[in-house]
Specification:
The structure is a single chain. This protein is of the alpha/beta class and 389 residues long. 40% of the residues lie in helices and 16% in strands. The protein contains 14 helices and 14 strands. It has an 8-stranded mixed beta sheet with strand order 2-9-8-7-6-3-4-5. A 4-stranded antiparallel beta sheet has the order 10-11-14-13. The chain has a two-stranded parallel sheet with strand order 1-12. It starts with a helix and ends in a 16-residue tail after the last helix.
Amino acid sequence: MEAASAMRTHRTLLEVLAASPVHALQPYRRRRIPGAVNLASNELRHPALERLADEALAALPGADVAGYPSDTAFVQMLADRLRVDPRSLLPVAGSDDAYRLLTEAFGPAVGATAVTQELNYQSLPDYARLRGLELVAAPYLPEQHAFDTEELIRLQAARPGRAVVWLSNPNGPTGAVHTPEELDRLCASVAAAGNLLVVDEVYRHFQDGPRWSGPAHTGRHRHLVRIRSFSKGYGLAGARLGYLHGHPELIAYLARWNTRGPVSAPALRLAEHLLRNGDKITAVHREVAADRAWFTAAVRPLPGLTALPSQGNFVAVRARTDALVQRALDTLAEDRIAVRDLRPLHVMGAVLRVGMAQRPVLHRVVAALSRAAEGVEGAQVVRGEAGRG
């Protein structure tokens, strides 16, 4: 009787799980609007890339699907393209998987603190919470459309030997960048403090300003790891392929936290085919940059709307009021165009984000934004401007 009573004082495993703080997080499910143009996810969609993907899939041997994948050939090809030691590369199932892996590797096992930008990749706070990492952030500065690099330096220096500094450059939600000089100072400060710098570079292909080269040889720098992806720059978001680049000893440590065969054989073959066609990929990147410049200029005369400078394959558009953001979202939805509402992030204010597409689609976006801006003071000057190509 006493034993039964004692057992009832202990919660079952399912009761413990039901009380977990993890329930404060929202499970992620990607939902698409049938028939809509998706400009909310920053996917790179282009006929040239789709043709290359079709070619690779048509040539995919059935044996590659039947057997477990080997990434050896892909890693060597990538290392040759980058002119780096193949031991400095670690394939992962997209940049999201890189965040998962890194937060696991530097979570409870190490007890590191995550020092980051506010805003950064949206899953980082969730992964940090799941792994029990303390998370501290340097703020986004809306007036400058930039991040406080000196605050990042201060926050990590106050935690010598136990901080992992995370930043995306170009930044995912905003399109803002750190200057090469800022990143040089941050990288040197991180090394001096015995910490680690993680730079997410998934949007690097679209940066047309000065780029940070980093230390002369990333693979020889023990305090730096870069996250790169084939989702944005190569149009392979559905394939789920990215990689980490860092010192071979650091990569060897991280490889022990990786899942076995995280990247499928079809994804590897797709990436190899695209790497062989680098000139076509570069042409697409140039087109995206030109479309981004055109879109930014086309939004400029629209009353109440400001296109923020961007170095990604998207442009964030700030509205004068929440009501104008909502009107823009509704007008775009009527035209079956989905964009990203950034207001729920509670950092940038009344802002929506438009992923870049080919010019005819962007004409539709600008026309919808122009209709949404009607009624705002000065709207009468817009009608002849919005459709200019």
